[in-house]
Design goal:
5 strands, alpha/beta, CRAL/TRIO_N_dom, Helicase, Ruva Protein, domain 3, phosphatidylinositol bisphosphate binding, 2 domains, about 10% strand, about 230 residues
Length: about 230
């Protein structure tokens, strides 16, 4: 399940979080309790899935605006994704990759220290700056996944969402040959139907011409209409 040592499980939301949660998600204490109860009852029918703790269920409920059936589907997709991609999820620990080198020294993936004017975290991926002398593409993707899972444990992020920026400056065929269909499936699953994330905007910047064909062929057809509207570049 999602886990991060720094997560304060007894965290109390600031008042403004509660206002946003009520306005955008329809969240109240009563809705939370009723939805978690229904979520747990539906999970009892899933004999191959061990129900996670309430704070994880709440993450999926918020991401799906308390549509419990959709939250169940998303949770199942989350576990299915993890089991079907051992290249990313086996030994899923920062110690398993050179996390500091990837994120701090080479800045291949960054999360903003401060939130934007709407309280959203901004995530920046720089796949065009990657090369195999730094790390493997799988190690970079694993680092991105760990950072995303950790930040999603913050209640403000669950409620206000994330702005994603993909800076493709320097991207060439020597990068693209490493990007398998599985790589793109994972990327789409994270953004759309397997992670408890609210992507409020997705910017693709400095994209070379070759990427347009890849995007139109391997990515865009599998995006929801809502996500297509939020992608720009």
């Amino acid at each position: 399940t999602l886990s991060c040592p720094a997560y304060p499980q007894d965290h109390i939301m600031k008042e403004d979080f509660e206002v946003v949660a009520r306005k955008e998600l329809g969240e109240t204490l009563e809705v939370i309790k009723e939805s978690i109860d229904k979520f747990r009852k539906l999970l009892q029918e899933e004999t191959n899935l061990r129900p996670p703790p309430d704070y994880v269920l709440l993450m999926f409920l918020r991401a799906r605006k308390y549509r419990v059936d959709d939250a169940v589907k998303s949770l199942k997709n989350f576990f299915r994704l993890r089991s079907s991609h051992p290249e990313y999820y086996d030994n899923f620990l920062p110690s398993a990759v050179d996390y500091q080198t990837i994120t701090r020294e080479h800045k291949l993936f960054l999360l903003s220290k401060d939130r934007d004017s709407q309280g959203r975290i901004v995530g920046l991926a720089r796949y065009g700056a990657w090369n195999s002398s730094i790390c493997s593409l799988n190690e970079l993707t694993k680092s991105v996944l760990m950072a995303v899972e950790c930040v999603l444990l913050e209640e403000e992020t669950q409620i206000r969402g994330i702005v994603a920026v993909d800076d493709l400056a320097g991207l060439g065929m020597h990068h693209i040959i490493h990007m398998t269909p599985g790589f793109f499936r994972v990327a789409i699953a994270i953004a759309q139907d397997a992670y408890p994330v609210r992507i409020k905007a997705f910017y693709i910047v400095n994209a070379p011409a070759v990427f347009e064909g890849i995007f139109n062929l391997l990515i865009k057809p599998f995006l929801s209409e809502k996500l297509k509207e939020r992608v720009s570049g």
